[in-house]
Specification:
The protein is 57% helix and 5% strand. The protein is built from 23 helices and ten strands. Strands 7-6-5-8-10-9 form a six-stranded mixed sheet. It has a two-stranded antiparallel ribbon with strand order 1-2.
């Protein structure tokens, strides 16, 4: 086998500088943590430090049993280190909470570069893969929200990279054995190769275990199922079992269990069933899942494994507080999250799966594809399995992300094909140049249309007075807010006026990047063309960040928290009218874990609230009205629109009611004026 080229210093420097610029600098601090999952997860990590409990997760003082712990451990450790160096303000702690995901993206970019460089034996392919990944709009957006999916991408990539290394070792053994037979010697397995095999099997097990501690059972289901499908397609049933026996299955399983099991056992023991929950009933050919009641609730094992994994996959989870992305949009997001590189995905797919090639079909049927061909087949199975798995279940926009590293590697392989002649030495560079030029023309046409449409919108957008609240210009689509990006459907033509800068930058990036790439391809400068396309993609990320920052006042209550913070004392009551998630950033930025909830016992706090140790934080309009005239100062948050997009009414409260701050379609009122 040819030696794998080492990573050039220029590639390493490029990755580090781009990561620092887009993932580990200003984007850590802006925008503020968003309401819902972003701030809820940061608050869970903060409360982990307050309670000195890394087994049971808590949010707002209530057991938060639905998530695996690794993301929260990483955020808590990051915030602990920030506090050690004196960075204790909520703003600094929010940046510290985002830092582990930023490092996960850096590790993922370096790993994808190494995987690609090794698979295609090309330093340029490795560079392209890293650029595609770092400029991915999906990776960029969701690694700046405190969601675990960047970690999931990292662990699944590490697991499959480790498995591919075992395939390389198997190929080396075949070469050694063949050479020994030809020379008349006895074939001998080199002990160094055996040690390497054990090492990579252990790395596969560790990656699966860390993925389970990040996202639950899919952390092991994905890599194991992908490897199983790969072995069946490349070896057949009999040789698959033979190959599995070579991979030290018992030792690999032991390593997996050693890492993954302890927390699960401890979490189950720390959160047992309470009281006497109602039994399940089977009526009219359907299982009825009884709801918990105060003090009568099933423990962590049932809730985490059955409710959060099995029932969620079947869309039967309780409470049903989530939505699912339409299937057409879910698949379409693969192209959106990887634009403009997704324009090459169809050609890359037909290149790695050349079903029209009789020679390839013969090798495939006889299970004797060359190692490199098997490697790209592994990537194709990886991407397809993730997408098909979630196509059959509930899904959010970011569930696409675990497939993106595989797609990025395949596209990078195709882009480096003309120069390196990878796989098909008979494929002329001229042919790949012509194909890429046609794709470039399509990208240029699409970018031109986007630029023209953006220009039309900017010219027609009405002038907006300085200081106008963006929320006053938006429509309301409450039925879509269970989606992670549902609020962006509220954008209207009038709101474009407040987003002139990001829209202009986006239009220029999607036009000038493809234009430069197209002109360079016409001059046979493929590498320069790809770098120009990358420059346009990174510029688009800047536009996306600016747009998110402009939209943030609608998505976060941080600015409200910062306004009232000088007036809030420990003995005061902070209350949210509605679900905790609708204003969860209040808890983080006010550093409170006892926020009261008015008419909002639902969503993430719902199940844990039935445990006997749940704090008495749930209010009704009547109990709040009884407390309002008392000596305790109350700060009440509420949205200015309700679920029917009509003006929202405060609970019936005795006077006086003082409006303290109003912004982003939200307000905070109090029973006492500011002093």
């Amino acid at each position: 086998m040819p030696a794998t080229p080492s990573r050039p210093r220029s590639t390493l420097l490029s990755i580090l500088l781009l990561w620092l610029a887009f993932y580990a600098s200003f984007t850590l601090f802006t925008p503020a943590l968003l309401d819902d999952a972003d701030s809820v997860h940061a608050e869970v990590a903060r409360e982990m430090l307050l309670r000195h409990d890394c087994i049971t997760l808590y949010a707002n003082g209530i057991r938060y049993l639905e998530k695996a712990p690794l993301l929260y451990w990483a955020m808590a450790l990051s915030m602990k280190l920030a506090s050690f160096f004196g960075a204790t303000s909520p703003r600094n702690l929010a940046a510290a909470a985002r830092l582990p995901l930023a490092f996960a993206v850096l590790a993922l970019a370096l790993l994808v570069e190494a995987f690609t460089r090794r698979l295609f034996n090309s330093t340029r392919a490795g560079l392209y893969a890293a650029l595609i990944l770092l400029s991915s709009c999906g990776i960029f957006i969701y690694s700046h929200l405190n969601l675990p999916d960047a970690f999931v991408c990292l662990w699944i990539t590490l697991a499959l990279y480790a498995f591919y290394r075992t395939e390389e070792l198997a190929q080396s053994n075949v070469v050694i054995s063949t050479g020994a037979k030809r020379s008349g010697e006895t074939p001998v397995l080199v002990s160094r190769t055996e040690r390497q095999l054990r090492l990579w099997c252990g790395a596969f097990a560790a990656a699966c275990a860390l993925n389970v501690l990040t996202k639950g059972l899919i952390g092991v289901i994905f890599p194991v199922a992908i490897v199983a499908l790969y072995l069946l397609l490349t070896r057949g049933l009999k040789l698959t079992f033979a190959r599995l026996r070579e991979l030290h299955p018992l030792a690999t399983l032991e390593a997996f269990l050693l890492i993954a099991t302890p927390w699960h056992i401890l979490a189950g023991l720390a959160n047992p069933t309470q009281g006497q929950p109602a039994p399940f009933r089977f009526i009219n050919h359907h299982w009825l899942i009884p709801l918990p009641t105060d003090g009568n609730v099933r423990g962590w094992f049932w809730f985490y494994f059955i409710n959060e994994h099995v029932l969620r996959y079947l869309n039967l989870r309780i409470p049903h507080d989530y939505d699912t992305v339409p299937l057409w949009l879910f698949w379409g997001l693969c192209f959106i999250w990887l634009m403009p590189w997704s324009a090459f995905v169809f050609k890359a797919t037909t290149w790695v799966l050349p079903f029209r090639d009789a020679r390839w079909r013969t090798h495939f049927r006889h299970h004797d594809l060359p190692l490199k061909r098997r490697g790209v087949l592994l990537l194709a199975i990886w991407a397809a399995f993730v997408l098909l798995f979630f196509s059959l279940s509930t899904r959010q926009e970011y569930y696409v992300l675990p497939a993106l590293p595989a797609v990025a590697i395949l596209i990078a392989g195709w882009l480096s094909l003309g120069r390196n002649g990878i796989f098909d030495t008979t494929l002329a560079a001229l042919e790949s140049w012509r194909v890429n030029q046609r794709i470039g023309a399509v990208l240029l046409a699409a970018g031109t249309l986007f630029a023209l449409g953006s220009s039309w919108l900017l010219l027609r957008a009405p002038a907006v007075a300085p200081g106008t609240d963006l929320a006053s210009l938006l429509s309301q689509n409450p039925n879509d807010y269970a989606l992670s990006m549902g609020h962006f459907l509220d954008l209207t033509g009038a709101s474009i006026a407040l987003n002139r800068v990001p829209l202009s930058i986006a239009a220029l990036s999607l036009f000038l990047g493809p234009l430069a790439a197209y002109l360079l391809r016409r001059r046979y400068r493929e590498h320069a063309a790809n770098l120009a396309l990358a420059a346009g993609a990174f510029t688009f990320l800047l536009a996306a960040h600016l747009a998110l920052q402009n939209f943030a006042p609608v998505l976060t209550s941080a600015q409200l928290a910062q306004t009232i913070a000088p007036q809030v004392h420990r003995q005061d009551m902070i209350a949210i009218h509605g679900e905790y998630e609708s204003a969860s950033s209040l808890g983080f930025y006010l550093q409170r874990d006892n926020i009261h909830i008015v008419d909002g016992r639902s969503s993430n706090l719902w199940y844990g609230s039935f445990f006997p140790d749940s704090p008495p934080i749930f209010e009704t309009p009547q109990t709040l009205a009884a407390k309002w005239p008392g000596p305790q100062r109350i700060f009440l948050w509420q949205s200015l629109t309700n679920s029917d997009a009509q003006p929202n009414a405060l609970p019936l409260l005795p006077a006086p009611v003082y409006i303290l701050v109003k912004s982003g379609g939200k307000e905070i009122v109090s029973n006492q004026p500011n002093r």
